Amino acid sequence: MVRHISVGIIAVLLTALFWWSRMEWTPDMRLWRAVGDSAVVLLFAALAMGPAARLSAVAAGMLHWRRQVGIWAGLASVLHAVLVIDGWAKWSVQRFLGYEFVPQLGREVRLEPGFGLANLIGLVAVLWLLVLLATSSDRAVRLLGGRSWKWLHGGANVVFYLAVLHSAYFLFLHYTASFHRAVPDANWFRFPMLGLAVVLLLLKWAAFFSTVRAGRPRRPAAGGA
What we know:
Elements: H1 2-20, H2 27-55, H3 57-60, H4 66-88, H5 93-96, E1 99-102, E2 107-110, H6 115-134, H7 138-144, H8 146-153, H9 156-174, H10 190-215
Helix pairs in contact: 1-2, 1-4, 2-4, 2-9, 2-10, 4-6, 6-9, 7-8, 9-10
């Protein structure tokens, strides 16, 4: 319980940091972006703990926080999705997929070619996270079996990169030159988010090579029996 409360406080503070760093945005957009970006950072932290533990004894001591960090990442992701679907899309499938009503045409038309795809990618990530949240307990480990549980939760890596793809569209493509709206200032989190994705890949590869090297039989010393 103490770890859950501690990580929850960190999640709130992280969301507040993102919130206060974008005062030029409308309050609703600031909120769902702050929650979404916090979810990406928390998910990165949860996934980085595993490979980092193979490389550092200090990081290995933090492994017992991984479940709580992952759960709060999932909760933040679900909240982000609900805020967008309820606050912006208004539970409209058409609007969620990037269609808007144009009075001059008298009908709904697709204004943003990549918007719907990016939202669908994000939705898949959230649905996957819901499965991971539902099985993030010792009881689920016993029910599924250790090997099956590890296989299932290994999908969290896929979720992270789906989240990166979803976010990358809005950070690099959506808010660029457009004929029907003003272009806002570039989001400062663009390159830090890409940095998190690269760091996670490097950590995983470094942990992989470290494991391979540790598993190799040592060669006998020259001149030995």
